[in-house]
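BUG: 3D viewer hangs when loading the predicted structure for this chain

Environment: internal workstation, default settings.
Expected: structure renders.
Actual: progress bar stalls at 90%.

Input used:
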Amino acid sequence: MHLHVDNVSKRFGEGRHSKLVLDAIDFTVNTGEFVALVGSSGSGKSTVMRLVAGLDRPTTGQILVDGGEVRGPGPERGMVFQKYSLYPWLTAADNVAFGMELQGRDRREIRERTAYFLEVVGLADAGRRMPRELSGGMQQRVAIARALAAEPQVLLLDEPFGALDIQIRESMQEFLHQLWQRTGLTALLITHDLEEALLLSSRVHILAPQPGRIVRSVTVEHESCPMAHLRVSRPFLELREDLAQCLRSLEPALIA
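Structure tokens produced before the viewer hung:
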């Protein structure tokens, strides 16, 4: 799988009242990569995600998946939103199965894949429970299982843990990192949380605001150790501070 955001710009409005929101965004996500876009409010993170998901179209440039232009939503891109977006009238298992049912898969296959992906996200015993009976972290795991079950080529994560409290958020970060290591999934994450991006990603792009543009890109290579240890390791802290200074240097552009 090869996702290429190719020199994409996005302008809202028309004529002299139009506003340039994204300016010449260019990056790739290859098979097995976990790539993050980090930026403050006004940097166009959510606009990039909407364009990649096919919910909107670029003003200039194009978005390609394996050489084919993205012109709308498609099954090769699975989306996980900040809000859990589960159907409250369906059980956890039925939520996971929903996308596969829309694809017209065989019932036996749907049952088997639903059970498998609930196990993958650590919810093998929660299939019959309703969303209201699940914690926020468990609901987000169901949402991830639902996205994975439809076999997307790339998982799109739109600030997936932003609505969770810090303890649940940290456990979900650990879970997602382990899931990536276990399954080799391909993912694109947008977040305002620099630490989260560095913990989860193999490559991080820093976005400047107004208009959104990539001003720095880093490849992240961490030693193999528990995430709790990684958070306080010297190389991690030094890289986090380096990129935090980069983000702070962009703040005047946001105020101007």
